[in-house]
Amino acid sequence: MESHHRNFSINLLLILILSLFFMSATTASFSIKEASIRDIQQAFLENNLTSRKLVEFYLHEIETLNPLLRAVIEVNPDALDLADKADEERRRIIAEGNHLGGLHGIPILLKDTIATKDKLNTTAGSYALLGSVVPRDAGVVEKLRKSGALILGKTSLSEWAYMRSFHNPKGWSARGGQGKNPYVLSGTPCGSSSGSAISVAANLVTVSLGAETHGSILCPSSHNSVVGIKPTVGLTSRAGVIPVAPRQDTIGTVSDAVYVLDAIVGFDQLDAGPTKAAEKYIPDGGYKQFLKKDGLTGKRIGIVRHPFFSFPHGSNISQVFEGHFDTLRRAGAVLVDNLEIEHIEIITNPSHSGELTVMKAEFKQSLNIYLKELITSPVRSLANVVAFNNNHKDLEKVDKFPQDMLIAAEKTHGMDGEEERAIVQKLERLSRDGFEKLMTEHELDAIATPGSDFAAVLAIGGYPGISVPAAYDEDNDGMPIGICFGGLRGTEPKLIEIAYAFEQATLVRKPPSLKSTSEDEKRSITLLLVSSQ
What we know:
alpha/beta, Amidase signature (AS) enzymes, 11-stranded mixed beta sheet, two-stranded antiparallel ribbon, 13% strand
């Protein structure tokens, strides 16, 4: 099966999509490696595949490639038992003439900020939370389990969702080590949901979940040539997810994005305000209905070139994107070019907009609440986390990387100060007078920009975005770059139509070439993966 067949329509996680190698692992006539959720479910029904064989395949891929990629921080020791249970349930449910959940028997990896009430840790990549016990599954995990999904493990990330320090490498955490981009091993995988993107790109799992505050889904998706969806804030519950800034936090998917989005959206009593407010955006019949090859017909798409088109003179990327714009036009879209967003230089600079100030204050306030609710934990506050890092510099590389953002956040006083309230009002005004005004005045359905820098615009207003593979930078060793489609709150149906139709019209993505690591490296990573609690 060609790699592009594992596409946006078949793929659904909020963060990444698509497949990897041309190598095939087969059961009967079925190839696992390039299969989508829809393909896998069909293979289940035709008895060409079982959940056990699927999990065994991914465990083998993790053992083979994870020593190089460091995408998976921990595997679920109960994964095979869960697969056997799913196979047994499937036989019984089919025999009774009932329907299976849309993700039944499908393995899913979760970013290591998303709590699971099982044998897995939830640590944000930090040794400070190793061995902590969460009170319950995160809201999105509860919905995944109800849909029949199997939690395969946790993915690596930029430690504390990149809130340890902006000076640390993206994709690095003390527990997980340095995540590697499967296309350019010396290049960045971006973050903070790096492992979620890497694992899907490298075919270590069917789908994965990530979380975004400011680019944490869109950037890894772009850099690892996968489809990623960052939903409207509130569309998915953040309950049970280690927080960064609740004003902007949202849970998204990597790969098979629309199927997973359908499974995890909706109201959650433990995140009642935002999820109740966003309920009105959920369409009757779910999101799969918007996977249309003619989804670009009649769409009005704005092109904001400044400051997002900053490619060197003669770069192949500039030419590629001009070609993509022609493709959008030929597919029936109306492009409104050379638009400008008011105060864009302020919006794209978190220090100038005040976003960073609010983020640090929110992080301290919300993290302290999260830590106090844990059943057991080595740390109970952000101050404890800072002290833990200072007192445990003997742990892997912890002494080599700073924690200045954690320290700066600890010095804040929460969100009750006049400065913080004033900044929130400023961010709302920047969104209203900038992105929202532009979209309304030009009657746009979406904005299209290269890469993931537009995430700054989407972040401060809680807007949705989708990244789709678009190009490979010849001047940067073939580093992938995506195209980002962003829209107003609740416009996921339009964005899915646009992104899916673009993907089908271009079929840009190609799989990376990877080789397995040595037996010694495999053994060392195996020890890491089974070291839960």
